[in-house]
Amino acid sequence: MIIDKNMDKEYAGIAGYNKFCKLASHLAFKNEMNVESDERIASIQTVSGTGALRIIGEFYVNIIMNKFMENKDIWLPDPTWPNHLGIYRETSLNIKRYNYYDKKTMKFDLNNFLDTINVYLSLYYAE
């Protein structure tokens, strides 16, 4: 089938399969934005979740922070996958942790989560 349709057999290209990226953007933004013409939307396809995290970490440090922000803090949940910490350390981000999980009850801990959000707000948005 691939040979009959004369499709590329090796890889999708540096930004991924274009049709997949467009359809994913439509799914994410539904009817809120014109995905085809809005220049604020950029989409890429990654090989894995780990690869996607590394790309977003590099984008965050090299584009967002260099142009718009001074601090290099990124907040990750506790617990999270162990490799997430290493991925973001490699991008020179300062890892901060937030709690959302009660290990005793094995349930979402709303109060602990909201306490962390309040700390975040006081650190970055103090009057």
From TrEMBL:
One of its GO terms (molecular function) is pyridoxal phosphate binding. Its EC number is 2.6.1.1. Residues 5-118 form the Aminotransferase class I/classII large domain. The keyword Transferase applies. One of its GO terms (cellular component) is mitochondrion. Signal peptide: none annotated. Keywords: Aminotransferase, Pyridoxal phosphate, Transferase. GO terms for biological process: L-aspartate catabolic process. Homodimer. This is Aspartate aminotransferase, mitochondrial. It comes from Intoshia linei.
